[in-house]
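FORM 12-B: Structure-to-Sequence Request
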């Protein structure tokens, strides 16, 4: 949407425009580190000595860990599927360090990545400002990998799954920011939010994670999104 009517535009030289863009990101980027009471990292890299199939990495959180083994099974014989699940959020420099660590372990052909459930201590503006550096890290350590961005799923009230938890509003804002970046960078979008939205029967009682049916639905879509890029 354009709001330029009535304003005078100026041409800005490329070096100055780049400087201004970086300055804007620096102002909006998190100036603090927000951590949770329990932090964790789970990495699974199977068939590390095999090189006859494409290699896929799933990056995300405990929900990614929940559907990861099923995606691995669905793509058996077509790709080797690993995962990096973490409690770190965009905005935390440790997330970039973790990604760099894993990407230096193997060469990945496809990276299906998600972030947005954790990091409540970062505002949505801070989260959005941190996304370009997250993308830059992926491209720095896996320059040849095809990327897929996955939206973050909704949250429902614990033990009252028919009710949407207020945190879902924040997730929607983060999804919108990430989707805008993905569109600008021509990165395919795997819309997991829309897949499970309106389906409380897919959720576990905690309202955040999923039951067996929910993980099956998620795994099927993730595997299908990856398979499109295997050819």
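FORM 12-B RESPONSE
SEQUENCE OUT:
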């Amino acid at each position: 949407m354009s709001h330029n009517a009535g304003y005078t535009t100026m041409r800005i030289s490329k070096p100055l425009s780049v400087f201004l863009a970086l300055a804007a990101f620096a102002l909006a980027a998190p100036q603090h580190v927000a951590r949770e009471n329990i932090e964790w990292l789970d990495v699974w890299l199977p068939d590390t000595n095999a090189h006859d199939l494409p290699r896929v990495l799933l990056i995300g959180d405990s929900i990614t860990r929940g559907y990861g083994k099923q995606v691995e099974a669905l793509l058996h014989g077509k790709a080797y599927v690993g995962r990096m699940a973490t409690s770190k959020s965009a905005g935390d420099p440790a997330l970039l360090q973790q990604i760099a660590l894993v990407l230096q372990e193997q060469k990945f052909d496809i990276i299906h990545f998600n972030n947005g459930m954790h990091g409540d201590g970062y505002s949505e503006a801070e989260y959005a400002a941190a996304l370009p550096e997250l993308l830059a890290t992926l491209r720095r350590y896996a320059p040849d990998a095809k990327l897929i961005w996955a939206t973050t799923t909704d949250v429902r009230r614990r033990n009252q799954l028919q009710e949407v938890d207020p945190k879902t509003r924040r997730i929607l804002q983060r999804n919108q920011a990430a989707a805008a970046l993905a569109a600008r960078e021509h990165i395919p979008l795997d819309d997991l939010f829309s897949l499970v939205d309106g389906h409380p029967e897919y959720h576990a009682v905690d309202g955040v994670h999923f039951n067996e049916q929910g993980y099956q639905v998620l795994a099927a879509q993730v595997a299908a999104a990856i398979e499109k890029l295997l050819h």
